[in-house]
Description:
Elements: H1 2-18, H2 23-70
Helix pairs in contact: 1-2
Amino acid sequence: AVVGIGNLFSSLIHSVAQNSSLAKQLFGYAILGIALTECYCIVCLNDGLFDFIHILIEERRLNFHKISTSFT
């Protein structure tokens, strides 16, 4: 995420240096890009957390099944 945001601001500075009349419009695009980059990071973190929780639940279910079948 940090690399993406750094690349965005680098491109923004380069573009404004070449054409300063578009500074406001380019800044708006940069803010939109930052928001989308952060949103993607949050989605990836949530996906990883859900996968981790799913693995823990499956592990617990399999262990419970092993314990309950050993008594029969």
